[in-house]
Design a protein that fits this description.
This protein has 233 residues and is mostly beta strands. It has one domain (26-229). 6% of the residues lie in helices and 31% in strands. It contains two helices and nine strands. The chain has helices at residues 26-33, 39-43; strands at 58-67, 73-83, 89-109, 127-130, 156-158, 174-182, 185-193, 209-211, 227-229. The strands form two sheets. A five-stranded mixed beta barrel has the order 1-3-7-6-4. Strands 5-8-9 form a three-stranded antiparallel beta sheet. The protein starts with 25 loop residues before the first helix and ends with a strand.
Length: 233
Amino acid sequence: MKNADKIPLRQNHHRKPIAAGAAVPRALWLKAAFGLPATILVLTAIGGSASAADEHSFKICSGYYALCAASTCKPTGTTMTVHVAGGGTARFPEAECTCPVESGQAIADVVGGNMQGSCAPTAPGVLWSLYAVKNEIPQEINNWVPSGPAAQAPLLYCSKNFNLGNQLVNCFSFACDHERYVNGVPVASCYCPIGESPEGAMVAPHTAFVTQAGQDDYSFCAANPVGGPVSPP
């Protein structure tokens, strides 16, 4: 495969906290909560279009959550139900993703994924896979090292010419369970749809997407990485 240009992820310092459970205005969510350079990744949570945010309910959740942005996944062979933006549901092939558990503030779409309208877990032992901008994320490929070079998670741009858009995994606002420790790092199993945009639509193979998996290794574009489309599905 021909290498594509990589998208840099710039750190965002001096960010003021947002009240937990508060609705997030679109402009604030894109610029203040995450920083403008992260907009490429954040836009994947609204189907690649800022106007699509009107069909979502983005909120800041506080507490424990799974951060799957740098994970790869394995198909389970079954299907799962997801919410469709604007109403209704759809079914997609399911993948299981092992993701590190973080604590703090993260963005959620409480009417997207399979969330039920709030940040609250649906049962004991359940937590949500949400998103927060981090340059370092523990990853299975490096035995879950929690920080330093082995935890670096730069954005990887997977070109539409790879024809792998339908192999990305969307874990934004989906449920996780089976929390445990691996090499001292808390992780959880998250169950996420393959080839689904956060709008609940199918992603065509000839679609570009971004992921934080793989540490700049383009072979990870074909490893069912967690990511989101950056061109219309």
